[in-house]
């Protein structure tokens, strides 16, 4: 599966890539031979969907589950606290007002 | 061939203690036994701060067996050459127990009781005189050859981000693999940051009993955090790209390397032999004292209490901490953070992300740095005088001999 060299695949089973560099909003990246225009700033270390992910599906990184999708996530979308929930303890961040994500 | 394998059998120099253990440093500790004695202890150490005179202490004031054990282990740590105890006089801390432990270890010891000596000024004067005297005596002490299998190395990650689990932590894991192969005792910790990978970890246990104990320690952490309503996940972690505790855990877990796990420790347990150990840092029993490890320095103190000569500290977001007693090697996982904070970082593991180094190369670089520390080199945080230290309340039940395990 072709991917932009700025994206890192940690395990063949993973449905997310990790950004190994900053990729600015509006830039075009290739995933699976298709171009995707980013509608967000992808920062170093953040995740992006490698393929379409269904609501409730496990997010796989390092080949291991790191949580579940709270809604459908399209290929090339940012995968983070706004669309992923832990199977263990909730994530609290300032952006969501201290509410569990 | 690994860096460890290329080394001569006695590549470093150490200070031999009466119990046969060897230290990489020859520190004089000034230990306050209650917060009321903290200022006096700090003032005693201040003029000697660049001469390996370090302040540690317990704010107190009511007795706690965990803090007692921690202080006893730290005051007799192999990197410690002499101990000055600073007591107010009325605190609940068992100073006689601590004195017995230090005396039994053969180290020079002095206790100054502020109420008996006659207040701040007199205690500071007496303390400084004793500290300078001990410093001079310890500086005249000869070193002895020390092998890698006499080392205890701890690892802790803090200020983690999306790069920590990809570069810094697995590189520290490669260093751990080399050190365990060379016979050293290596300790990883923070059971609350192993939530989600307990089953993967248990599969590496040396025995089925240990596998159950490892899983149990993580389940205990999860229960503890559920009661508190807050886990080991900070806002900066999310900002750095981590979405869930299990994602943070997978990254943190990487710093354990790939060796078989030989045993489980609790704070202050000394590894009986070489191998890889998990340190269970979450208190036993009912939730009594709040968040288990309120900051990274509390974890470093616990690793030191288990005898860690050096601690590897992996950070993505950036950290400036060092510690009293044991050098801290800071491994920066994020190349952008390294650029901003190079003065504080000993290792640029972000090179891995940029294709400028491999995990194995950075792992070997970390082992070489440890050897360098045993030959007089200083970490960045040591050179800048960092001496962070914190010790709070916890309660633990002793671990059974089969999972320590006994020698």
List the helices and strands and how they pair.
The complex is a heterodimer of chains A (101) and B (407).
Chain A: E1 7-8, E2 16-19, E3 28-31, E4 34-37, E5 47-49, E6 58-61, E7 64-69, E8 78-79, E9 84-85
Antiparallel strand pairs in A: 1-2, 2-5, 3-4, 5-8, 6-7, 7-9
Chain B: H1 3-6, E1 12-16, E2 22-23, E3 27-32, H2 38-45, E4 53-57, H3 65-75, E5 80-87, H4 95-104, E6 109-113, H5 114-117, H6 120-139, E7 144-146, E8 152-157, H7 168-181, E9 185-188, H8 198-202, H9 208-228, H10 235-239, H11 245-253, E10 261-265, E11 275-279, H12 296-305, E12 310-315, E13 328-332, H13 335-341, E14 347-348, H14 359-373, H15 380-383
Parallel strand pairs in B: 3-4, 3-5, 5-6, 8-9, 8-12, 9-11, 10-11, 12-13, 13-14
Antiparallel strand pairs in B: 1-2, 1-7
Helix pairs in contact in B: 2-6, 3-4, 3-12, 7-14
Structural class of chain A: mainly beta
- Spell the H/E element sequence of chain A: EEEEEEEEE
Residues in β-strands, percent of chain A? 25-35%
Supply Rg of chain B: 20 Å
Helix count, DSSP H or I runs of 4 or more residues of chain A: 0
Oligomer: heterodimer
Q: What kind of sheet is the major sheet of chain B?
A: 7 strands, parallel
Compute the number of strand runs of chain B.
14
The rough form of chain B would be described as globular
Number of strands of chain A: 9
Low-pLDDT regions of chain B: none
The CA-CA distance between the termini of chain A, in Å, is: 31 Å
* Average pLDDT level of chain B: 94
pLDDT < 50 stretches of chain A: 96-101
Q: What structural class do you assign from the helix and strand content of chain B?
A: alpha/beta
Largest interface: A-B, 32 and 34 residues
Structural description of this entry:
The complex is a heterodimer of chains A (101) and B (407). Chain A is mostly beta strands and 101 residues long. Helices cover 0% and strands 31% of the residues of chain A. Chain A is built from no helices and 9 strands. Chain A has a 4-stranded antiparallel β-sheet with strand order 1-2-5-8, with no helix packed on it. Chain A has a 3-stranded antiparallel β-sheet with strand order 6-7-9, with no helix packed on it. Mean pLDDT of chain A is 89; it is low at 96-101. Chain B has 407 residues and is an alpha/beta fold. Chain B has helices at residues 3-6, 38-45, 65-75, 95-104, 114-117, 120-139, 168-181, 198-202, 208-228, 235-239, 245-253, 296-305, 335-341, 359-373, 380-383, and strands at 12-16, 22-23, 27-32, 53-57, 80-87, 109-113, 144-146, 152-157, 185-188, 261-265, 275-279, 310-315, 328-332, 347-348. In chain B, the strands form 3 sheets. Chain B has a 7-stranded parallel β-sheet with strand order 10-11-9-8-12-13-14, with helices on both faces. In chain B, strands 4-3-5-6 form a 4-stranded parallel β-sheet, with helices on both faces. Chain B has a 3-stranded antiparallel β-sheet with strand order 2-1-7. In chain B, helix 3 packs across helix 12 (296-305) and helix 7 (168-181) packs across helix 14. The two termini of chain B are 30 Å apart.
């Amino acid at each position: 599966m072709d991917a932009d060299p700025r994206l890192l695949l940690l395990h063949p089973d993973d449905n997310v890539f990790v950004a190994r560099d900053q990729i600015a909003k509006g830039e075009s990246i290739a995933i699976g031979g298709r171009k995707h225009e980013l509608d967000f700033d992808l920062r170093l270390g953040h995740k992006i969907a490698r393929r379409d992910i269904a609501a409730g599906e496990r997010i796989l990184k390092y080949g291991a589950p790191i949580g579940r999708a709270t809604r459908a996530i399209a290929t090339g979308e940012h995968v983070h606290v706004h669309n992923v929930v832990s199977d263990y303890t909730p994530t609290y961040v300032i952006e969501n007002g201290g509410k569990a994500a | 061939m690994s860096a460890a394998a290329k080394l001569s059998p006695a590549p470093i120099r150490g200070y031999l203690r009466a119990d046969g253990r060897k230290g990489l440093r020859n520190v004089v500790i000034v230990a306050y036994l209650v917060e009321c004695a903290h200022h006096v202890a700090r003032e005693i150490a201040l003029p000697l701060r660049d001469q390996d005179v370090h302040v540690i202490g317990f704010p107190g004031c009511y007795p706690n067996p965990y803090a007692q054990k921690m202080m006893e282990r730290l005051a007799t740590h192999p990197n410690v050459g002499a101990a000055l105890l600073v007591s107010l006089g009325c605190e609940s801390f068992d100073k006689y127990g601590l004195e017995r432990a230090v005396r039994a270890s053969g180290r020079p010891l002095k206790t100054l009781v502020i109420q008996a000596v006659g207040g701040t000024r007199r205690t500071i004067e007496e303390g400084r005189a004793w500290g300078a005297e001990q410093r001079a005596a310890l500086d005249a002490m000869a070193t002895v050859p020390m092998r890698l299998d006499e080392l205890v190395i701890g690892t802790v990650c803090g200020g983690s981000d999306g790069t920590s689990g990809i570069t810094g932590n697995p590189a520290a894991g490669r260093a751990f693999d080399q050190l365990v192969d060379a016979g050293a005792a290596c300790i990883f910790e923070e059971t609350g940051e192993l939530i989600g990978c307990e089953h993967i970890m248990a599969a590496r246990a040396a025995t089925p009993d240990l596998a159950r104990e490892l899983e149990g320690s993580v389940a205990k952490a999860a229960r503890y955090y559920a009661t508190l309503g807050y886990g080991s996940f900070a806002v900066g972690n999310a900002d750095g790209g981590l979405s869930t505790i299990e994602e943070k855990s997978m990254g943190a877990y990487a710093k354990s390397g790939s060796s078989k796990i030989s045993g489980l420790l609790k704070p202050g347990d000394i590894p009986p032999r070489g191998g890889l150990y998990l340190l269970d840092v979450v208190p036993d029993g009912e939730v009594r004292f709040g968040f288990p490890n309120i900051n990274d320095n509390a974890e470093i103190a616990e690793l030191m209490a288990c005898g860690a000569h050096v601690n590897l500290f992996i950070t993505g977001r950036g950290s400036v901490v060092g510690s009293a007693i044991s050098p801290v090697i800071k491994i920066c996982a994020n190349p952008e953070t390294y650029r901003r904070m190079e003065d504080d970082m000993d290792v640029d593991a972000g090179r891995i992300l940029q294709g400028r180094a491999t995990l194995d190369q950075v792992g070997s670089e970390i082992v070489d740095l440890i050897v360098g520390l045993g030959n007089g080199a200083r970490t960045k945080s040591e050179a800048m005088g960092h001496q962070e230290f914190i010790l709070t309340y916890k309660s633990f039940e002793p671990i059974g001999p089969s999972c320590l395990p006994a020698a």
